Amino acid sequence: MKNTEWYKLDNMGVYYASTKDRKNPTVFRFTATMKDDVDVVNLRVALEDTMEVYPNFNVTLKKGLFWYYLEEEHHLPDIKEENKAVCARVYKSEYDILYRVSYYKKRINFEVSHIVSDGRGTIEVFKTLIANYVKYQYKVKNIKLSNSTIEEHSEDSFDKYYEKYKKDRSKEGKIFRLKNKLLPFEDAKFIELHLNCKKVLDKAHEYNSTITAYLGAVLIQSILKEMKQLDKGKYIRVDLPVDLRSYFRSESSRNFFGLTYLSYKFNGEVDDIDKIIKVVNDEMTEKIKKENISKRVNKMVSFQKNFAVRAIPIFIKDMFLNTITEFVDNGTTSLSNVGKISFSKEVDEYVETVAAMISPEKNFKITICTYGNDLVICISDKFRRNNIVKNYVRSLIELDKDAFIISNGV
Amino acid sequence: MKTCNNCNINIDTPSVKCPICGSILVGKDKDTTYPRVKKKYTTFNRILMFILSVIMIINVYLDLQLTNHITWSKYVVFGCAVFYIIVRSIIRSHRNPMSLLTGYAFLLVVLLLIFFWLTKFYVITNFIIPILCLTELIISVFYALVVKNKYIKKYLSVIVTNMLVSFIPFGLMIFKLTTFNVLVNISYVLSIISFVGLIIFDYDDLKDELSKIFNY
């Protein structure tokens, strides 16, 4: 038998591995709509080529005594026509490879468990897959691909940039959380709202703001509209995953993100967007400073570095992390901007749209990405009725009369 | 694309309702971007739970009617609960046969120990548990020899676990929970021998496997 490579899990991977058996494990999907119907044979060849470059993605999750670890697999998963719910569970057993490739008509879907990588890390793999597909399907030569080495993209950057004595000890007020009837996971709604990026950017610039801050402010206002007087004094907390690759030099395709958040206090009335944006801008300027991000990262990593924690058997860690996750919920919602996705000129010609989305877990989540001038806001929602989403989408539609929605129809 | 007149937006969806406001969409869209995914319902679990509950209720009822006490029915309840746990974990489990076998053998040993604690029935510790551990050890050693050079590395941790499980009868002997020790002695001596054999013949693989398990 061939010797198999194995990898230690990164800091976030440890958390996601321990909570993998929950009803809603975190999976995200990148999808590209091609010019023509997808050819599965060429997609298979493209996947083979991609995994030659990113073997750290073609892995299964194994259980050790104190920690989980990832083991490289020598075979690839089957590529099937889409027949599962969007962002459906990828991990079922220790033999399941932690990603899935599927297709439907013109769309290629690449779904990855958060155990392996984060959104930004997966983009490079996704781009390589699409570029390889275009190479074989349309016989395009000389496509420029990522030039990072296997060692660079399989690096655990959390470990590399951890500083022992710089921990964050922030505290927060009472957080407003949505209470509504949840749909089963396979019934979760996925709504892609396609907007003209330039129009949204112009609007954001009107307020001296960035797209993320503007969309975050609109989201906060949409939530404020649905809050009751009983919620007065509570904070809306919008979790913001921050790509650490823009702060620390890293080519890693594994998890390397930090979590920060926007918080906004409800004073009993719906504030104007100008006021919200001002608060959001100030918060973002402060919280995404390298020093503050670094503190939060160190806080996260210190758990994994603690000797007492390291000596606890894995099944106890699993129980602990699952209980914590169950009782200590995250914020009101989350907003993740994976940024601009761009292919080389030769590939662009064959790709119509690109979208990114994440499983909704307990409430609803928003993922944003941009491809060309197409700004795609993807809302994954587990609520049967969600007026916040209605408010949010309707506010954004006003910016662009040509906006349209693609939904999974649940 | 269909249109939602309420939200005033075009929507590409396999559904007839607007995903935002729930109102009925206007127009037809045969070529949707997302497929309609069929749901899979699992009613087997509920049927099984219902049948076992009926069996338990009838048994407890008959026991109370016939003897005025809960006598034999508690064993039926215990048996049904064990049966349910095992069937459910078999359905939910996607593990390989070797690790499944180890898991169930370990679960059975734990249940037998609970049963022994309740009944003080020494046949369990003298014979049943040592025979169970020995059988498991022999199967795993046989498996290791048969699949050698093929998948042995995948199962090394399971084989080592089986060897450690075979030490359970030794623990029972130490705590004086046995009255007849022949099978107990055979169990742990065989376990030591197989462990030594594994170290001698498969040291590199074992070392590699241990480095993964301990993450160093």
Structure summarized in a few sentences:
The complex is a heterodimer of chains A (410) and B (216). Chain A is of the alpha+beta class.
Tell me the layout of helices and strands.
The complex is a heterodimer of chains A (410) and B (216).
Chain A: E1 6-8, H1 11-18, E2 27-34, H2 40-53, E3 59-63, E4 68-72, E5 80-81, E6 99-104, E7 107-113, H3 119-137, H4 150-153, H5 157-161, E8 189-196, H6 197-206, H7 211-224, E9 235-243, E10 257-265, H8 273-287, H9 290-305, H10 307-310, H11 314-327, E11 333-340, H12 345-348, E12 351-358, E13 364-371, E14 374-381, H13 387-397, E15 404-407
Parallel strand pairs in A: 5-6, 9-11, 11-13
Antiparallel strand pairs in A: 1-4, 2-7, 2-12, 3-4, 6-7, 8-14, 8-15, 9-10, 13-14
Chain B: E1 2-4, E2 9-12, H1 44-67, H2 73-92, H3 97-119, H4 123-146, H5 152-165, H6 168-174, H7 182-201, H8 203-213
Antiparallel strand pairs in B: 1-2
Question: How would you describe this structure to a colleague?
Answer:
The complex is a heterodimer of chains A (410) and B (216). Chain A is an alpha+beta fold. Chain A is 34% helix and 24% strand. In chain A, helix 6 packs across helix 7, helix 7 crosses helix 8 and helix 7 packs across helix 13. The longest helix of chain A is centred in the first third of the chain and has 19 residues. By secondary structure, chain B is mostly helical. Chain B folds into 3 domains: 38 residues, no CATH class; 51 residues; 109 residues, no CATH class. In chain B, a hairpin with a 4-residue loop joins strand 1 and strand 2. In chain B, helix 1 runs antiparallel to helix 2, helix 5 runs antiparallel to helix 7 and helix 6 packs across helix 7. The relative contact order of chain B is 0.07.
